[in-house]
Specification:
The structure holds two protein chains of two kinds. By secondary structure, chain A is mainly alpha-helical. Chain A folds into two domains: 1-46, no CATH class; 81-303, MetI-like (MetI-like fold). Chain A is built from 14 helices and two strands; from the N terminus they run H-H-H-E-E-H-H-H-H-H-H-H-H-H-H-H. A two-stranded antiparallel ribbon of chain A has the order 1-2. In chain A, helix 3 (26-53) crosses helix 14 and helix 13 (265-274) runs antiparallel to helix 14. Chain A is globular. By secondary structure, chain B is an all-alpha fold. Chain B has helices at residues 2-6, 10-16, 25-32, 36-62, 78-85, 89-120, 126-136, 145-154, 161-185, 189-197, 202-213, 215-231, 234-239, 248-256, 263-298. Chain B is globular, with a radius of gyration of 26 Å. Chain B has two domains: 2-81, no CATH class; 84-298, MetI-like fold (Orthogonal Bundle). Helix content of chain B is 74%, strand content 0%. Chain B contains 15 helices and no strands. Classes of the chains: A mainly alpha, B mainly alpha. At the A-B interface, helix 1, helix 3, helix 5, helix 6 and helix 7 of A face helix 3, helix 4, helix 6, helix 7 and helix 8 of B. Chain B: Its main location: membrane.
Chain lengths: 311, 299
Amino acid sequence: MAQAAAVAKKPAPPRRRRGSATPRRLPYLLIAPAGLLMLGFIAYPVLSVFYYSLQNYNPTKPWRNGYAGFENFVHAFTEDPQFWDTLVFSAKWVVVEVGLQLLFGLALALIVNQTFVGRSLGRALVFSPWAVSGVLTSAIWVLLYNSQTGITRYLADMGIGEYGTSWLSDTSTVFPAAVVADLWRGVPFFAILILADLQSVSKDLYEAAEVDGASRIRQFLHITLPHLKDAIILSTLLRAVWEFNNVDLLYTLTGGGPAGETTTLPLYIANTSVDAHNFGYASALTTVAFVILLFFSMIYLRLSKFGGDDK
Amino acid sequence: MSTKTATPPAPAVQHEAPAPQRPTKKAHRAWDEVPRWQIYFPLGAYLLFTLIPFYWILLFALRKPGSTSLVPWPMTFEHFEKVWTQRSFGTYFENSVYVGIATLVMTTVVALAGGYALARFNFRIKRAFMLALLCSQFVPGALLLVPLFQIFAELQMINSLGSVIIAETVFQLPLSMILISGFIRNVPYSLEEAAWVDGCTRFTAFRVVVLPLLRPGLIAVGSFAFVHSWNHFLFALMFLSNQEKQTIPVGLNSLMSADSVDLGALAAGGIIAALPVVIVFAFIQKWLITGFSAGAVKG
């Protein structure tokens, strides 16, 4: 890193003076397309969300539109119990999903990092749900969970559970059912990242540990885990944000139901703006979501030591 | 039971035994070996969890309507025909291909230009730009649906695939650019300088010397952009209300949200949705982990 940067910096100034070869404007020209796209379609929308959060704005009720001050926020925090429910559910969803994904992902990575017959096939199969979309995951699990011909029917044949139960429409089973469906495609994410990092552990360390007679568990605790620490923290954080933001799966699998039981904050926002057209209120809720995300991104930037050796 | 209790001390014994004959090598191997059942048992259990859902969707797609058999026999393709023609998955497929390929090309080209600038130059707003890239990864498209809808309405792009292509590209850019600038940093600058000395322009030097070395990384980033836009659902749902313009995930969702779900059609639609992704991953698998780990080092 440091080497590459040093190599990159030194020869630059003399080149520049040679004239047309490297005009001073070149780096700006190169980042311009990306910069403009991000300004227009990320920065501007974010600012407009802040603006609308202080407005009454509902295209279907234009006579009420206008400046609202903090009314939307006051309404959310004091008069809207569903807002609190979605916050609590978001936290529960993210913690359970990310925790289980990390646990299973780590275990899987350690297993497929061993040498055994059929390893590459095993890896390919284990990782395969990673590429499956949220909507397709929903479709697959709708097939599995449906009460008539789903897996529940065959489980009932074996004496487990009752006939005719649909796990997605019962408030007591919908949470575990949705968690399992999302785990199915979420675990490979951690497994892939951790496996990539495992491959950079120096073999010498293990050999030295063996010579010292350290058990496999001790090797794991004192060599593998410390090596993986950074990767685990960063991927957990990224995944937590991703799970918080991701609405594809819950939107299509449960639609946030039954009875709002599985509605995360972003899903609530989508429903408020798409179904109720209450854009002002949705913008205020989005602002709250941004504050939460900002908190996580600060931790991320801190931990990833942004620009530490890149100055 | 007996194997369970016997295994822990076993490696230690093996470690002692062959030691006199071949001091280091063999001892290591015996010690290294994890008991096979500790690999195959959990892996097999997890594979069941992974593969049963895949089998389930194949089963529903291939067996006759109304059948409850657990093997897709006699096999039928009528669900596929029905979904492709009556449920317009043919049209959706075409639209998704356009969106996927356009997103792939735009993301790769724009990220390549920006990534090169970040890797090879020092300029005044570089740090601010890097910070913006990192932060924008935390801005979810799902939360910006309303303002994006308004922007595309202003631009008269609602109901045109262009809106989805732009939105997908924009949200793919930050990560792609960070990864690509990492790949470029891995290529020694001296290679490019050597080409300049030989009389190449900066662009030719980049094209001839750097670009071929970036291939694994670009394949990883490009296929990621394709798969992501192929799979993504919300932008298409919001910006394309005309059924003629919709994409595969929206079609799948409408199959699911119908009053009485046609499970056979849903399964067949799901397989059509998965097919291109499977093909892309089969094609690029060997580059994927190396590509991403190379980029990840730079962060």
